[in-house]
Structure of Kinase:
Amino acid sequence: MEDKITTLLKNIPKVEKGKKVVLGIDGLSRSGKTTLVRNIEEHIQEKDIFSCVLHIDDYIVERERRYSTGNEEWYEYYNLQWDVEWLKENLFKRLKESNELKLLTYDYNSDSQKLCSVKVPDTCLIIIEGVFLQRKEWRNYFDFIIFLNCIREERFKRESVDSQNNIEKFEKRYWKAEDYYMKTVSPIEQADLVIQN
């Protein structure tokens, strides 16, 4: 794995003094994004490179804004799970401008958002991981995007037993949204690097 990460990092722009490089780790649910981010983090810490990791799922909206809205379930997941424009203005546009981001962060226990601060060093690799990162509103803010490609059957095996027993939700909500993303955005073709996982 160490050799793979070294090779992978040679492909992305170098983090030079006073520079912020924005790396996107895109991929559908359970494709291995979080594991890859952890491996990259460990590797660059050994090289004394600062990193700032942001998980796009930390910034979803409250349930009432994304469930039972009158729209189809896949539409809710793709278009309403996040406030896409708010994140564009307050996260993506400010990544390289600011040393501190004020982000509405979702709390699963209370089903609410609260404003949290994220420090971004002057020199660092900013890693953003999550689904649907290459949507048109966000794509141009990345310096480099890796897409983790993994077949649906394999990804579904990685879900919890409870989740697997609720296959109808996957069919109506998640998979239809994923199909829409793959068809309309073409993330594999757009990515700078594709990893078969």
Q: What stands out?
A: The chain has a mean pLDDT of 94.
